[in-house]
Specification:
Elements: E1 12-14, E2 17-19, H1 24-44, H2 56-72, H3 82-100, H4 108-115, H5 120-136, H6 141-154, H7 161-171, H8 177-182
Antiparallel strand pairs: 1-2
Length: 189
């Protein structure tokens, strides 16, 4: 182009999320874990660690405020596999064990229950439901048209956001998207 060689690439990056025609979720998961690990290490100097650090409940609140958003950033739109979610769960539980100074053999349920922590899959579901609410409550008619078209044409495509969100709504026994469009719930602040 204009006498210069234009290099092609197999992926693009937008707002920290890599997009490609292949297994984009695999390298996005690794990037999210790497970013969350760096954030956690940066917080260690302020006492967010297990032994002789801050109270585990306070450490968890800081972890929840800073690390979990970095760990789950942008994943609500990607079609994640069970192994992707398990990678994140392992990282998450390891950090929660460390914050509480618990041994590795401690039950996964105990690690979460002692702090009242949610599994990462549930955190991602919360973000997906929040995105759905933003789309449904949007006043832009073009966005609503795209949503309705995607629901009509991709309801059986497991990689579609709306197919996944239909499963999540059913899993948590929540109303359908059509019901939400007609009876928009108010957000509690």
């Amino acid at each position: 182009m204009g006498g210069k060689v234009v290099k092609t690439t197999d992926y693009s990056e937008h707002l920290g999320i890599k997009r490609t025609d292949g297994k984009e979720h695999n390298f996005n998961i690794k990037e999210r874990i790497k970013t969350a690990r760096r954030t956690k290490y940066a917080l260690m100097g302020s006492g967010v660690h297990g032994t002789n650090g801050l109270n585990p409940a306070i450490s968890y609140q800081i972890y929840k405020t800073y690390v979990i958003p970095r760990l789950t950033y942008g994943l609500e739109v990607l079609p994640l596999t069970k192994s992707n979610i398990e990678e994140q769960e392992i990282f998450h539980r390891k950090n929660l064990r460390h914050l509480q100074s618990l041994p590795e053999r401690t039950s996964n349920a105990v690690v979460l229950l002692l702090l009242g922590a949610l599994p990462i899959e549930t955190e991602i579901h919360k973000r997906q439901l929040s995105l759905l609410y933003s789309i449904v409550s949007c006043d832009n008619s073009k966005i609503k048209d795209v949503m309705n078209r995607q629901i009509a044409t991709n309801y059986d495509n497991k990689k579609s956001f709306f197919s996944r969100i239909l499963n999540i709504l059913e899993m948590y026994d929540l109303p359908s998207i059509n019901y939400l469009q007609k009876n928009l719930p108010k957000r509690d602040i």
